[in-house]
Amino acid sequence: MSMIKAKEGTGVYRNLENQFSKVFKNILRDKKDSKDMSTRTLFRYKSSFNMFMRFLSERYRLRQLGAMRDKFVAEFIEWRKEQGVSLGTIKRDVVAIQFFHRMNEKSQNRLRPLDQYDFGKIEKRYIDRAWTDKEFEGMCRKAEELGRIDVLLPMRIARFTGLRIHECVRMDAGQVTGFLKAGELTTKGKGGKVRTIPLNREAQAVLAEAVAAAGDRGKVFVPGDKTATQAIKAIDGFIRRHRDKVMVDRDVPITYHGLRHRYAQEERDSGKSLKQVSRQLGHEREEITRVYIGPNQ
Question: 180 lies in which domain range?
Answer without folding.
Answer: 133-293
